């Protein structure tokens, strides 16, 4: 028979284990409620109840609804950028393959996940919360555009892509991602998001590619 005293010494008390897990539980609950109800309609006490804690406990970790929302964004989207940036630095294949990989990684990790609801929320409510809109631009939109621009610039520098306006090319690459997040499920019978993304990538790459026998010209102004 195991010694109950030694077991209790080896295993942290339940209260301590719960306290350590609580921020993650709160962020998961907050993501659910924000996505279901939007930012304006979300109440902090509802998030706390969903996580199984008091509102006072939630405020120990996140002093306001705005800070809670920012933490949700950082946990579910912003936190991925460092890893994606490192992958770009280490990528050895050509830039077309890198672009395919990057857009598919976005779809798998954000676009098809619950985190995509954050992007929809911001599109719907940004005009009513300009400070949150600025935060979202700095933490999500600008870094995402910069990563895509890095891939396009890499392709141009290596002679794999024709010269283009890199900044606007990055915006063009974001467009199909935005469409997928806004496309209502079941709106078109048989619509396959992953097939759509493959077709978009093919069209975009053929537009960027240096065609045999055609001299590469200057970037469009």
What would you say about this model in short?
This protein is mainly α and 221 residues long. It has eleven helices and no strands.
Could you characterize the architecture of this molecule?
The chain is mainly α and 221 residues long. It folds into 2 domains: 4-72, Homeodomain-like (Arc Repressor Mutant, subunit A), CATH 1.10.10; 77-208, Tetracycline Repressor, domain 2 (Orthogonal Bundle), CATH 1.10.357.10. The chain is 71% helix and 0% strand. It contains 11 helices and no strands. Helix 2 (14-37) packs across helix 3, helix 2 packs across helix 8 and helix 7 (95-111) runs antiparallel to helix 11.
Q: If helices are DSSP runs of H or I spanning 4 or more residues, what is the number of helices?
A: 11
- Give me the CATH fold name of the largest domain: Tetracycline Repressor, domain 2
Counted beta strands: 0
Biggest β-sheet description: none
Structural class: mainly alpha
Instruction: Average the pLDDT over all residues and give the rounded result.
Output: 84
The whole-angstrom Rg is 22 Å
Q: Which band does the percent of strand residues land in?
A: under 5%
For the termini, the CA-CA separation is: 79 Å
How many domains, in number, for the residues?
Answer: 2
